[in-house]
Amino acid sequence: MNDKIKQVFKISYDTSETKDHTIDAELLGNAIVNTASVLKHADKVINGDDSSIDLDVRANNQGSFVIEFVTWLNSTGINPLSLLGFSAAPLGVKTLLEVLGEIQSRPVASRIDLGNGTSKIILKDGSEVEADSNVARLIVDRTFRKDLEKVIKAPLDGASNAKLVIRDEKDDEVSLYEEEQVKDFKTPSREIIEEIKEETESKEVRFVKVNFSGSTGWTAELTSGEVISVKMKDESFLSLIEENKRVSKGDLFVVKLKTTTKFKTGTSPSITREVIKVERHRVAKVNKLVPDNE
User: Fold this and answer.
1) Fewer CB atoms inside 10 Å of the end CB: C or N, the chain?
2) Mean pLDDT score of the chain, rounded to an integer?
3) What pLDDT score was predicted for residue 103?
4) Residue 2: what pLDDT?
5) Sign of dihedral through CA atoms 88, 93, 96, 100?
6) Other C-beta atoms within 10 Å of 54: how many?
7) Judging by DSSP bridges, how do beta strands 227-232 and 163-168 pair with one another?
8) DSSP 3-state assignment of 168?
9) Could you give the domains of the chain?
10) What are the tens digits of pLDDT across the range 224-235?
């Protein structure tokens, strides 16, 4: 463990039933096993399959039933504890536990990867929640959610005056969840979730097929030689095309190309491409459809 850093956190199951410092053995065992599963699963999603995390459990102190976890994390990469909310997160960062508190067990319809380290989670009721992309990936991961439910919610089910507290090594409170809030960690019923990745980048293309009167029916060739179908979303360029009725074969254009990839469980991904903006026309000045200063 020489290349790893040590970090400690504690989970306190505070209920009327645990005041005498006891807890159901099966619930305790499941909570410990599933905490390990949650952390290791999250670490691999966040830092890659080669990453690893080690976890030990210490004997707890008197009071509410407390499990003290000693983790050994890779010294490089993202800290899964802070991203999940098991340790203090950097200012302004929404943890997975906080995002789940916003979602409140409502089913997810889709996840949109915005391509800048953030994702948009679209719920079945139409509301949206923005989150770190790693957090969003874990939220739509049913295996992870079921393990997390067994850590947060299951040990407190049916208990009176239930409260879950996560603390750091110095016993400072990291987060607290009252009885009603714990219900937010219930895994939603199985749903087909659409995952969407959007990427926008500048590309050089030649238009192989054009539609002088509409946005559909366009085909472009990339500099790699790949020929792709695109929608023309640049209204000003469409107006120029409609007015001039010409695009010389072989003309090179620089465009802002948006690629949207949609995944659904059990199906092949679907890809759509849109030209958001035609930025430059690489021809002699007299033949330019798009001035260089646009």
Assistant:
1) N
2) 85
3) 92
4) 59
5) positive
6) 15
7) unpaired
8) strand
9) 4-88+135-180 (3.30.70), 197-287 (2.40.50)
10) 999 999 999 999
Q: What is the average pLDDT across 199-205? A: 92
Cα(214)–Cα(205) distance, rounded to whole angstroms? 19
Structure-token pair, residue 3: 């290349």
Asked if residue 69 has pLDDT above 80, the reply is yes
Kindly calculate the radius of gyration of the chain based on its CA atoms and give it in whole angstroms.
Answer: 26
- Helical spans, DSSP H, in 153-271: 179-182, 235-244
Strands (E), the chain: 4-14, 54-58, 65-74, 108-113, 118-123, 128-132, 163-168, 173-178, 194-209, 218-222, 227-232, 252-264, 270-282
pLDDT of residue 74: 85
- Strands of 54-58's sheet in order across: 54-58, 65-74, 4-14, 163-168, 173-178
DSSP 3: T
Q: What is the DSSP letter of 190?
A: P
The answer to whether residues 83 and 75 touch, using CB atoms and an 8 Å cutoff, is no
Lowest mean pLDDT among 203-207, 249-253, 286-290: 286-290
Residue among 198, 111, 96 at smallest CA distance from 152: 96
pLDDT attached to residue 230: 95
Of 20, 142, 39, whose CA–CA distance to 87 is shortest?
Answer: 39
Q: In the structure encoding, which two tokens stand for residue 246, read together?
A: 């010409």
User: How far is the C-alpha of 172 from the C-alpha of 186, rounded, in Å?
Assistant: 26
Is there a contact between 79 and 162 (Cβ–Cβ < 8 Å)?
A: no
Locate all alpha helices (DSSP H) within the chain, ordered by sequence.
25-47, 80-84, 96-103, 133-139, 142-152, 179-182, 235-244
- Dihedral sign from CA coordinates of 18, 89, 97, 266: negative
In the chain, how long is the greatest CA-to-CA distance?
Answer: 87
